[in-house]
Amino acid sequence: MLHRRSLVPDDKLTGQEERCILIDGTIRRTPVAEIFVETPFYSGPTTAVCMKNPLYDLIIGNIQGARDATNPQQTLQSTQAVQTRSQTQTSRGLTPLVTPTIDFGSEDIVKLQEEDESLRRAMEAAKQKDNPQFQLQRGFLYRVKTNRRGQERKQLALPEKLRQRVMTLAHAGVMRESIVPMSVSQKVSGGQVCLVM
């Protein structure tokens, strides 16, 4: 479980630290806290790592006692003789999944990469071909990483304007791991392009 650090009181911290591996491969040491959580998906005491700036205030992973994201009420419903109006409305079916739309094409990404100040040095290194860590292919800027086995991975460098939008799409939409069974590590090791923040 991951929790926003600013929402955790200091007296809940255990003094321990956990290492978290981020999508770009960096490892961050984060404090650990003992907290009580009450949500439709998990309720009870738990141990959580605390990060300064996560995408959401609370992220519940595959932990013991967590409910399925498609049916958070599966173990909470108790028997009763009468259903209220709001209960009958919720039992009619699932609401459709709303996902952010992608209203830009590949040429827009290339343009945003060229204009992005945070990618300027990487773009110059790729154009001058003096740093093999960065490459331009069909106008796209990629960071190239080679793992211990010699396998090369190309990561699309995201312009700053798109970072929040892509992360929201990846974590809140149909791509999230609770719906798509393939884990992020399997996607990356399968040779697909991942995104650099």
Please sum up the structure shown.
With 197 residues, the protein is α+β, with helices and mostly antiparallel strands. The chain is built from five helices and nine strands, in the order E-E-E-E-E-H-H-H-E-E-E-H-H-E.
Tell me what you see in this structure.
By secondary structure, the protein is an alpha+beta fold. It has helices spanning 85-90, 106-115, 120-128, 160-172, 184-189, and strands at residues 2-4, 13-21, 27-38, 43-51, 58-59, 134-137, 140-146, 152-157, 194-196. The model is unreliable at 75-79 and 174-197 (pLDDT under 50).
Mean pLDDT: 75
In terms of per-residue confidence, which ranges show pLDDT below 50 for 5 or more consecutive residues?
75-79, 174-197
Give the topology string: H per helix, E per strand. EEEEEHHHEEEHHE
* Class from helix and strand fractions: alpha+beta
Backbone CA Rg? 21 Å
Oligomeric state? single chain
Tell me the β content.
Answer: 25-35%
Major beta sheet, strand line-up: 2-3-4-1-5
- Report the total helices: 5
Largest sheet: 5 strands, mixed
- Span from first to last CA? 22 Å
- Kindly give the count of domains: 2
Helix content: 10-25%
Number of strands: 9
Shape: extended
